[in-house]
Amino acid sequence: MYVGALELDVLLGDVNSLKGKRALVRPVLAELRRRYEVAVAEAGHLDLHRRALLGVSCVAADASHVIRVMDQCERWVAARPELELLSARQRLLGPHDE
Q: Is residue 44 a part of any domain in this protein?
């Protein structure tokens, strides 16, 4: 079993409130779930209006599948016009990791 974790630090467009942030982030999280069948959550920068840290995770029997899904998620978020991807960090845990 392989587990992939992806952290995406994004800058949001013209957002002036936490309510506006939520209205922008929720559809992104829902689409990632639907499109790639991953677990996602807003995992950081919760009190900032224009920043969000998105966490994505994937579990599969094959490491290459996990890496491919994480790469696709990263590219999809980077292509969103309402978001600016500031940084992305991937981690892969496998049967030999503790």
A: yes
* pLDDT tens, residue order, the chain (98 aa): 999 999 999 999 888 888 889 989 999 999 999 999 999 999 988 888 899 999 999 999 999 999 999 999 999 999 999 999 999 999 999 988 76
Q: Which two tokens stand for residue 85?
A: 């991807």
Domain hosting residue 67, numbered range: 2-93
Total count of domains within the chain: 1
Q: What's the CATH number where 26 sits?
A: 3.30.70.1120
pTM for this one? 0.89
**Number of other residues whose CB lies within 10 A of the CB of residue 35:** 11
